[in-house]
Structures are given as C-alpha cells and as structure tokens.
Design brief:
Layout: E1 13-20, H1 23-34, E2 37-40, E3 51-55, E4 58-65, E5 73-77, H2 81-90, E6 94-101, E7 106-112, E8 118-124, E9 139-146, H3 149-160, E10 163-164, E11 172-174, H4 178-183, H5 190-193, E12 204-210, E13 216-222, H6 226-235, E14 239-245, E15 249-255, E16 261-267
Parallel strand pairs: 1-4, 5-8, 9-12, 13-16
Antiparallel strand pairs: 1-5, 2-3, 3-4, 6-7, 7-8, 9-13, 10-11, 11-12, 14-15, 15-16
C-alpha cells in the first residue's frame, strides 16, 4: 500500500546492516550493485557515521564504519529490547552488547544464539525497519544456517515464538499470525496473492538450513537477473563464490571487495 509505513511485530526480522573498514568503497560497491543512495543518519556533530541505504527513496539497509568481522547482520524486531535480551540469556543465548539507545531511531542489542550465530535486536522508535523489501535491489530474506536445527529452533521458539511447519517444505520458519498482521497493514493483498500456497505460508519470516561448519545468518537480496548482477558484482571488485539454481530461484553467493558474503536471488516462477 503506497505511503504506508512498514512496521514489524515482535519476532520478525526487520533490518540488515554491515560494518566495513572502507566505508566509501562499500558505498561504491553496493550503490553500483543495487542502485542504493546513501545518507548519514548521525547528527553532523556526532562522531562516526551510519549510512542509510535507500532504494527509490525507501530505507533498504545500512553501512557503518568498522572492522566488518561480523559481515551482514540481521536485526529481529522486539517490543522491549531489555526484556528480550533477558529472555535470550535465559534460553542459552549470549548478549554480546547489552541494549542501548541508537539515538532517536530505536534501541539495539547484539546477541548470539546457542550455536554462535549473531543477530541484533531492534526496538523501533523513529526507525521501524526496512521499507524497501522483496524487490530487486532490496533485502529479501534472512536464512539461518546451523549445525543443530533442533536446538536452534528450540531457542528461537522460546524467545520469539517461531515454529517450523514441515508441510511448508524444508527450512520455512513461521511466526503464527504474521500473515494477518501484514494483511491488516502494509500488505493488504497478501492472502489473495498467496491463495495457491500451503496454509501458513504467509506467516513465513525466515529460512533454516543445515550447516556443516559454524552457525550464521545469511542475508539474501533480491535481483532481477542473477547473472547480470553477478557480472556487475565482479566488475565492481566483488567475487562470485558459488551459483545455485532451485525450483523457484537462481542464486549466487557474492563476496564484496572487503570479504563480506551475501546471497543474491532471482525469483523464477515455475512454468
């Protein structure tokens, strides 16, 4: 719905950002790859920078100066960052950076799940989260790769209420009621548009996949043409480390010039 602010209920991934040591280089790469424009959310007299990436004027992601060791990070919306951080600790997770205000935009905390996959909490105030989503050049999905899916889902269920429904196929994580939330706000057409899909598909909020090595959250961006975007990433100094075709997508894993990995995904409707 044009003009309606997209908000995120407790437990839904809502934002992505990336720290990099060469911020100007990062803005050149991602601006060239996804068509992003940038503006600094920090006041003029504040140290550092937090560069909001916009796509057609809508908030899409952010880049900030830093060592970049965490790669792309997914934020999960919460109503109260302090209470949710306490629940994470009780459920066996780790609070790396305790909740603190991020200016007037909101309140954030940095966390690890029991397998060590990093994510952040976001208690929104002035900045509700990504407004450009699920379109070429925008964040599309966050996927948890984990060596112990059962333990991981126990943690995320206890903290956020997530469930996995086998009838939706492998790796679909649901937050029951999210489809109704979307239908009542930013996506009133979702139920009609997804009539073909299994029941509960409109509640899907994240992905889950097995991992042989360390647990991590993968960030996926939508593109109109995987091969063209992969070629553009190379021309901008990035690397294409793998290419995959599924029944519904054409994907590639990209490393940016500073080594941060992410996935680009082109939707291909069968038939």
């Amino acid at each position: 719905m044009a003009g309606m602010t997209r908000t995120y209920p407790q437990g839904v991934p809502c934002w992505v950002d990336l720290n990099q040591s060469d911020l100007d280089g990062a803005m050149r790469f991602y601006g060239g790859l996804f068509g992003w424009s940038f503006s600094n959310a920090m006041p003029p007299d504040a140290p550092g920078a937090y560069m909001i990436a916009t796509l057609d004027g809508q908030d899409a992601a952010a880049l900030a100066p830093g060592e970049g060791g965490d790669g792309w990070v997914s934020y999960i919306a919460c109503d109260d960052a302090d209470q949710t951080a306490a629940a994470i600790a009780r459920a066996g997770g780790t609070i790396v950076d305790p909740p603190e205000d991020a200016g007037p935009g909101g309140r954030a905390a940095t966390c690890l799940d029991p397998q060590g996959a990093g994510f952040r909490l976001w208690q929104a105030r002035r900045r509700p989260g990504a407004q450009a989503v699920n379109e070429p050049g925008a964040w599309n999905f966050s996927d948890l790769a984990t060596p112990d899916a059962e333990q991981a889902m126990r943690f995320y269920r206890d903290v956020f209420g997530w469930v996995v429904s086998p009838e939706l196929g492998a790796g679909m994580v649901r937050l029951p009621g999210y489809g109704d939330f979307l239908a009542s706000g930013p996506d009133p057409d979702i139920h009609r548009r997804q009539e073909f899909a299994p029941e509960g598909f409109d509640d899907v909020i994240a992905g889950l996949s097995p991992a042989d090595s360390e647990a991590r959250w993968w960030i996926r961006f939508a593109v109109a043409d995987r091969d063209e975007s992969a070629d553009r990433a190379r021309s901008l100094g990035g690397m294409v480390t793998s290419v995959t075709d599924t029944d519904w997508t054409r994907e590639a894993v990209i490393e940016d010039p500073q080594g941060a990995a992410f996935i680009i995904s082109q939707l291909v409707v069968p038939g």
